Amino acid sequence: MGYHNVLAAYDGSKASEKALKHALQLVEGNPGSKLTVAHVAARPSYTFAGYGMILPEGYEAQIKEYETSIIAQAKAKIEHLPYSKVVLLSGTPSNAILEYAKENQCDLIVLGNRGLGPIREWMLGSVSHHIAQQSQVPVLIVK
């Protein structure tokens, strides 16, 4: 089965590198297919129950620099594909990816599995697990 509109989640980790490699193979083997690489700019909440946190000077600049670097890495990996692009999404990673896939009629989502382990996954949740459970299109989780 060929996929024509593939969305690959990318955060620069080893798991996302592997996932992007698989997504590239799928798209390269199916001429005319489109690949979108998505990086989610997830900002943690700095306030809770009336308390706040003072961010170190230059924190936002460092985050923007990191995001720019991730976007550049992704662009370099897909620049040879005619129907490809990199997008920067914001929000909770799983929700942002699912929303983008739905709005853009993606027919496959590819992402890495960091392997948090059962306890950490239960405590923290897992982006790949949430996407696999909630997605309306096939999901390829690369280990």
Automatic annotation (TrEMBL):
InterPro entries: Rossmann-like_a/b/a_fold, Universal_stress_UspA, UspA. It holds the Pfam family Usp. Residues 3-143 form the UspA domain. It comes from the Bacteria. Belongs to the universal stress protein A family. This is Universal stress protein. The lineage of its organism: Bacteria, Bacillati, Bacillota, Bacilli, Bacillales.
